[in-house]
Design goal:
- The protein has 144 residues and is of the alpha+beta class.
- The protein has one domain.
- The protein has helices at residues 2-29, 95-120, 132-143, and strands spanning 34-35, 60-61, 65-69, 80-84, 126-127, 130-131.
- The strands form 2 sheets. It has a 4-stranded antiparallel beta sheet, with no helix packed on it.
- The longest helix is centred in the first third of the chain and has 28 residues, at 2-29.
- Its main location: membrane.
- Keywords: Membrane, Transmembrane, Transmembrane helix.
């Protein structure tokens, strides 16, 4: 019975480790860190699908990506373009955002490593008399 509980707990920890690593990666890639004020659409801009006014446009900015409106395609289905605005590290918006990018990247690397190692804890639970769970938990705390 005790072995089953330990196995279920390690499987849950492994699954959650993988989910958190992917969530951090998605947050890093997101362009929705700063969302601008809604810019109302003009009366002549109508949604082709519903015939009513389009949803107001909100410009967004992320650590290295952004979403902007494409003016010549305002009547199409996709009138925003999302992608990186920074081609290299020095083009990231500010020093604080550069520091955020460094710390988030380090945290994501640690979390991905822990998620990868956690898969192997199903078979091996200690190395050199050290619990892999304790070491990985410490690494997850540092990454957080």
């Amino acid at each position: 019975m005790c072995h089953v509980i330990v196995t279920c707990r390690s499987m849950l920890w492994t699954l959650l480790s993988i989910v958190v690593a992917f969530a951090e990666l998605i947050a890093f890639m997101s362009a929705d860190w700063l969302v601008g004020r809604a810019k109302p659409s003009s009366p002549e801009e109508l949604d082709n699908r519903t015939g009513g006014p389009q949803e107001p446009y909100r410009p967004t900015l992320g650590i290295y990506g952004r979403c902007t409106r494409i003016s010549h395609m305002q009547f199409s289905r996709r009138d925003t373009l999302c992608g990186p605005y920074a081609e290299n590290f020095s083009e990231i918006a500010s020093g604080f955002w550069q520091a955020t990018a460094i710390f988030l990247a380090m945290g994501i690397m640690i979390l991905c490593t822990v998620a990868f190692v956690s898969v192997f804890t199903m078979c091996v639970q200690s190395i050199m008399k050290k619990s892999i769970f304790n070491v990985c938990g410490l690494l997850q705390g540092i990454a957080g």
